[in-house]
C-alpha cells in the first residue's frame, strides 16, 4: 500500500490521499412527523422508522454531527482548525432517484458538534433513504498529496443512518428482501448476488445490478422455469440468512449471556418451536435454548460441530431438497 | 390539496401479459384490456395532476408527424414526447417509483404508442412491463424519468432532455448509471455528450463515475460538472 493511502473499512473508501473514514460522528436526536410528537430513533441500528407511526407527509429530523479531532490528520498543519471544508449530509433515495446534499455547516469547519434540522417530504421518497455525513474540501490544497489536493474532494466521513420510509417488502417465505444497487457507496462488493444486513432488522439485500436474478425473484408466476428457479434461489438465500442469524444470535449470547435484539429473541423462539431446532440444541424451553446456543459457539471445537449441524438444520427448514428435486424434474430437457 | 385516483397493475396482471398467447409478440395484437382491468390496484394521492387527454393528443400528433420506420425519427419522437409525458403525468417521484403505475399507463391508456415505437425491436414486452430496476425499460417510465432527471428545476426548461435524446446510447447510459440521481450531473452528462458516439460516451461515463470515489458530486454545481466532463472528453478524444 502506498504511504499516502489510508484505507477505511468501507470498500469504496480506499482513497489516493489522506482520508478519515471515522472523522464524523453523526447522530439523530429525534424526529417528528408533520410537527407532531417525537418518534424514537433506533440508536443501535442507526435507523428511524416513521412508517411505524401511521400516516405522515413531512418528517423533521434533528441531527448532530461531531467533527472529531482525528480530522486534523487530513489537513496540512497550516490549514486549521478551522478547516477549509464544508460539512454536509448526503441524502440518497434510490427508489425515487433523489440524491442531494444538505449543508450542515459551510466552510470553515471547527472540531465541534454542529446541530441542524432536516425536513423531508414523503412525496419525494419511497423505501429506504440513506443519510451520510461528509466533510468536503472547499479550497485547493497548496501542499498537495498526500492531502486531498482539490476543492470538492471528500476528506472525512462517518457512519450513516437509514430513514425507513416504507416497511420493507417481505418475501413469501417470510424473509425480508430489499433490492439495493451494490455499485453504490457503503455497499458490499458489486460482484455479490446478495448480502446480509442487520440494519435495522435482519434482511437479505439483493444486488439489483444482477438483473437476471432480480427478474426471477420478482416473477409472480406459479408454474414454469422462473417460479421454480425463484423457489430454489429463495431456499438458497434463506439457508445462508438463517446460518447468519443463528451464528450471530449464538455469538451475542456467548458474549453477553442473552439475546440483545428482539429479532434474536425471535430466532431463539423459532429454534425452540420448530422441528429443525432439535438438530441445533436439545432444549424444550426458551431459557435452556439460550444457554445451549451460547455454549455451542464457546470454543473452536464446539463451533465446528455447530456449523455442521446448522447447515443440516437449515436445509430441512427451507425444504431445499424438495425444491431442488422438483426443479430438476420439471426443467430437465 | 385535492386527491386524484391513480391505478397500478398488480403482479397478477403482469403475469397475465407474460402468459398471453399473442400479445405483445404478434403483429397487430392488442393488450387484453378487459381482463387487465380486473387486476388493478387504485390509490387516492395528493398533488397529482394527470392530463391523459392532453397526452393522447400529443401522442396522436407525434405518430402523424414522425416517420417511425426510421431509427433517427423514432429518437426524435422520444425527444418530442419526453417533456410532454413529464408535464401531462405530473406525479411526485413517490408515485413515479411504482412500476405498476407505468405498466397501467402503457397497457391500458397508451398501448398503441408503445407498439408503434418499439414493434421493430425484440424486447417489446419489457417496454410494457419494465420495472423500476431498469429505468430505461418501460417506455413511458423511460420518457418520464429521462425528462424529470434532466429538467432544469430553476427555469423549468427541458434543454438537457432534448440533448439527451440525440442518441439512444446516451439515454441508456445515463438511465443505467448511478450518477443519474444527481440531477445537475444528469443534465451535465446530457449536454456534454449530446451527439457523441458510443466510443466517446462509454469511456467518458466510466471515468466520470470513477471520479466520484473522491469527488463529492453532490457538492458540485452543474457548471463545475460540465467543466469536469469536458476535460475528461478532451482526454478521451
What is this structure's SSE topology?
The complex is a heterodimer of chains A (333) and B (237).
Chain A: E1 24-33, E2 38-39, E3 47-48, E4 58-67, E5 85-93, E6 98-105, E7 113-121, E8 128-137, E9 154-157, E10 161-164, E11 177-180, E12 194-197, E13 203-207, H1 211-217, H2 225-256, H3 262-273, H4 286-296, H5 300-317, H6 320-331
Chain B: E1 3-9, H1 11-18, H2 33-36, E2 40-46, E3 49-50, H3 52-65, H4 71-88, E4 89-90, H5 93-96, H6 99-109, H7 111-118, H8 124-129, H9 139-150, H10 159-164, H11 168-176, H12 183-193, H13 198-211, H14 222-236
Antiparallel strand pairs in B: 1-2, 3-4
Q: Tally the beta strands of chain B.
A: 4
Structural class of chain B: mainly alpha
Low-confidence stretches of chain A: 1-13
Described by strand count, sense and barrel closure, the largest sheet of chain A is:
6 strands, mixed
The number of helical elements of chain A comes to 6
Q: Give the strand content of chain A.
A: 15-25%
Which chain pair has the greatest contact? Answer: A-B, 41 and 33 residues
What percent strand of chain B? 5-15%
Largest sheet of chain B: 2 strands, antiparallel
User: What's the mean pLDDT score of chain A?
Assistant: 84
Order of helices and strands of chain B: EHHEEHHEHHHHHHHHHH
Distance between the termini of chain B: 51 Å
The oligomeric state is heterodimer
Q: In angstroms, what is the radius of gyration of chain A?
A: 23 Å
Low-confidence stretches of chain B at least 5 residues in length (pLDDT < 50)?
Answer: none
Q: State the shape of chain A.
A: globular
List SSEs of chain A in N-to-C order.
EEEEEEEEEEEEEHHHHHH
Number of helices of chain B: 14
State the strand order across the main sheet of chain B: 1-2
Helix content of chain B: 55-70%
Category by helix and strand content of chain A: alpha+beta
Amino acid at each position: 500500500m502506498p504511504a499516502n493511502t489510508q484505507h477505511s473499512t468501507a470498500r469504496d473508501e480506499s482513497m489516493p490521499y489522506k482520508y478519515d473514514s471515522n472523522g464524523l460522528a453523526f447522530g439523530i436526536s429525534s424526529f417528528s412527523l408533520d410537527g407532531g410528537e417525537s418518534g424514537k430513533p433506533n440508536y443501535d441500528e442507526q435507523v428511524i422508522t416513521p412508517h411505524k407511526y401511521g400516516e405522515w407527509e413531512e418528517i423533521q429530523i434533528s441531527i448532530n454531527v461531531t467533527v472529531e479531532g482525528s480530522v486534523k490528520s487530513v489537513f496540512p498543519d497550516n490549514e486549521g482548525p478551522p478547516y477549509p471544508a464544508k460539512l454536509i449530509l448526503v441524502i440518497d433515495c434510490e427508489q425515487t432517484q433523489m440524491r442531494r446534499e444538505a449543508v450542515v455547516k459551510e466552510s470553515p469547519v471547527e472540531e465541534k458538534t454542529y446541530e441542524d434540522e432536516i425536513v423531508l417530504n414523503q412525496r419525494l421518497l419511497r423505501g429506504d433513504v440513506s443519510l451520510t455525513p461528509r466533510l468536503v474540501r472547499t479550497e485547493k490544497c497548496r501542499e498537495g498529496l498526500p492531502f486531498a489536493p482539490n476543492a470538492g474532494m471528500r476528506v472525512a466521513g462517518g457512519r450513516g443512518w437509514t430513514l425507513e420510509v416504507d416497511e420493507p417488502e417481505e418475501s413469501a417465505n417470510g424473509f425480508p428482501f430489499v433490492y439495493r444497487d451494490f455499485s453504490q457507496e457503503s455497499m458490499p462488493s458489486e460482484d455479490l448476488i446478495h448480502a446480509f444486513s442487520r440494519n435495522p432488522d435482519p434482511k437479505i439485500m439483493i444486488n439489483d445490478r444482477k438483473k437476471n436474478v432480480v427478474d426471477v425473484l420478482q416473477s409472480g408466476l406459479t408454474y414454469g422455469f422462473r417460479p421454480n428457479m425463484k423457489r430454489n434461489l429463495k431456499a438458497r438465500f434463506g439457508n445462508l440468512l438463517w446460518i447468519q442469524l443463528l451464528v450471530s444470535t449464538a455469538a451475542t449470547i456467548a458474549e453477553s449471556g442473552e439475546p440483545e435484539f428482539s429479532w434474536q429473541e425471535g430466532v431463539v423462539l423459532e429454534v425452540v418451536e420448530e422441528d429443525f431446532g432439535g438438530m441445533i440444541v436439545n432444549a424444550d424451553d426458551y431459557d435452556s435454548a439460550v444457554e445451549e446456543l451460547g455454549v455451542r459457539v464457546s470454543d473452536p471445537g464446539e463451533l465446528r460441530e455447530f456449523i455442521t449441524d446448522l447447515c443440516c438444520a437449515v436445509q430441512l427448514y427451507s425444504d431445499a431438497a424438495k425444491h431442488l428435486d422438483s426443479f430438476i424434474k420439471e426443467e430437465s430437457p | 390539496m385535492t386527491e386524484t385516483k391513480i391505478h397500478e397493475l398488480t403482479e397478477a396482471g403482469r403475469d397475465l401479459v407474460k402468459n398471453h398467447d399473442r400479445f405483445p409478440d404478434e403483429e397487430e395484437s392488442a393488450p387484453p384490456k378487459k381482463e387487465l382491468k380486473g387486476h388493478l390496484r387504485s390509490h387516492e394521492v395528493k398533488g397529482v395532476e394527470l392530463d391523459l387527454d392532453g397526452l393522447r393528443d400529443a401522442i396522436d400528433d407525434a405518430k402523424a408527424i414522425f416517420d417511425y420506420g426510421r431509427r433517427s425519427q423514432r429518437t426524435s419522437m422520444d425527444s418530442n414526447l419526453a417533456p410532454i409525458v413529464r408535464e401531462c403525468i405530473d406525479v411526485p417521484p413517490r408515485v413515479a417509483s411504482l412500476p405498476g403505475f407505468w405498466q397501467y399507463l402503457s397497457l391500458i391508456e397508451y398501448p398503441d404508442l408503445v407498439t408503434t415505437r418499439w414493434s421493430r425491436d425484440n424486447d417489446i414486452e419489457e417496454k410494457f412491463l419494465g420495472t423500476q430496476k431498469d429505468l430505461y425499460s418501460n417506455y413511458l417510465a423511460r420518457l418520464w424519468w429521462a425528462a424529470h432527471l434532466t429538467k432544469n428545476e430553476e427555469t423549468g426548461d427541458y434543454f438537457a432532455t432534448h440533448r439527451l435524446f440525440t442518441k439512444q446510447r446516451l439515454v441508456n447510459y445515463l438511465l443505467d448509471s448511478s450518477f443519474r440521481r444527481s440531477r445537475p450531473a444528469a443534465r451535465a452528462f446530457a449536454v456534454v455528450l449530446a451527439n457523441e458516439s458510443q466510443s466517446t460516451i462509454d469511456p467518458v461515463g466510466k471515468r466520470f463515475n470513477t471520479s466520484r470515489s473522491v469527488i463529492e458530486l453532490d457538492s458540485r454545481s452543474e457548471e463545475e460538472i460540465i467543466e469536469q466532463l469536458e476535460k475528461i472528453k478532451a482526454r478521451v478524444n
